[in-house]
Amino acid sequence: MTQRGWRGFIKTAIATRLSKDTLLQPRNAVFLLLLVIPVLYFSTAQSLYDLWIKSGNPVYSHGAIALLIAAYIFFKYWFAGQAARREPDFHAVGLAALVFCSVLWFLAALGSVQILQQLLFIGLAVCLFWFLFGKEILKSLAIPVLVLLTAIPVWDFLNFYLQIATAINVEALLKLSGIPFVREGVSILLPNGTFLIEERCSGLRMFVAMVAISLLCIYQWQLRLGAGIVFMLVSLALAIVINSIRIYIVVVAGYLTDMQHYFVTTDHVMLGWVLFGLILFIFLMLCSRYLLSDRWYSRVAKPPAEMGQDQGKVGHQDSDSNKARRTLALIAGLLGISIGPALAAVYQYQPDKAVPVNVNLARQFNGWTMQGPRNADWQPVYHGADYQDQFVFRNSTGDQVEAFLAYYAFQAEGKEAIHHQNTLYAKEAWKTVSRQRLIKPLSHAPLALNQWIIESNKGNKKLLWQWYYLNSRRMSGGIDAKLAGIRGVLSGDPAIAVLAVATDMDRTYEQAEAVLTSFLTESLHSIESAIDQASVVETNDR
Fold this sequence. Notes:
Layout: H1 5-16, H2 20-23, H3 30-40, H4 42-54, H5 63-79, H6 92-110, H7 114-133, H8 138-149, H9 158-177, E1 182-184, E2 187-190, E3 193-196, H10 204-221, H11 225-256, H12 262-265, H13 269-291, H14 320-347, E4 364-365, E5 368-373, E6 387-394, E7 400-408, E8 430-441, E9 446-456, E10 461-470, E11 473-475, H15 478-491, E12 496-504, H16 509-540
């Protein structure tokens, strides 16, 4: 293909490949099955649309662009002469992978594991091509799939590491500047104020965008594997450096203006994107000049095949038996992608009628007395819960515990106990000091829980414990709870409860821990009995 880029591709493709005869070739019937996937898996397709367009989550707002880039790369391969001219056929391993993805999607839907459903949504398309055209096509799908993965919310775990990396880089820059400061974790303490490098300031959006841009460059420049990996790593390191420079500029501006600079009081996001665009432009210009030069790297890869070079390579006769075999392959592909939605339709839990749920907690637990419901100042929010409430308990010595309970009689999309939009505490008013998973030895049974120490904007600290209760079991891990939820749906017991208790840390950690331990020792069995009774009432009333 002698013309490069979008314009050359479109002109040449329309002239030589996208004719009526080409579009109607049997091998292109796979795209009809691709259109069936978002129809059958509509809830997952809608969740991706909401994430990319409506959620307001800036990290994945490039999803629609990533989809277009992936489509451009793959269709250029498919229609511009780089694809082998083979027809749909049966590839047993690919069919097994397709069925596995469909069934796994069904299990993920039962457990409301939305991220896994989104990953499998892409996996279904990959397995469909694998089944119909063999494993050789997977190489051509690699870059488009990786581009799409940048728009799936599997990257959030990097926030912590990016925060730490940014804080270390800013620390090094401040040392060079001679500005007095102290770094505590991801906080930068200046004489006239404190900067906290929060999750939204970690630079994850730049990092993920850089992955997509690097993949597009690797494809356009046709870098070999080794050069592509080096280019990707350098690009990602550059994204971290750019974000570190942004935070450094904000910190210096705050120090010089007594925390009154525009970047401190109003907005520093645009600063980051201006830096990102400028530095990225210079970086890509240098790479295109030197990386692609024979002096630095002998020509990157074999140029793509010329349009029409491979025409006629596969010239088998289109007999009736071949037509029948292709038809059966397409039908098998349709059945394979239909298994998951069919199972979901059969097993999906839908109550016959809306039943009000109430969890009747005792007002007293051996010395701990309920003072009445109130809103906890840490402001937990769990969307779609069938029942949720907050209480405060006190004992005779004046110790106080705040308790929170959210109960889901069943879960569905957007109505989930474990969901990224649920928040245990308001992150605008509280920050995480520490977090860990622990097992606390209570008198009647050990309790696996998640522990937070959180601090408010006013400097108040709380010790916060949270866990899940379902199928008469306690667990702290979200994955464990999701798997248990799947078993619960299949066994007819889909209910799940989210529990949390907190107390002020106006004394030592050991004293706050003793207060929560004392409360749970006296109350936990009674609370779980009340939750079990709520499940029984809801089940009987259906």
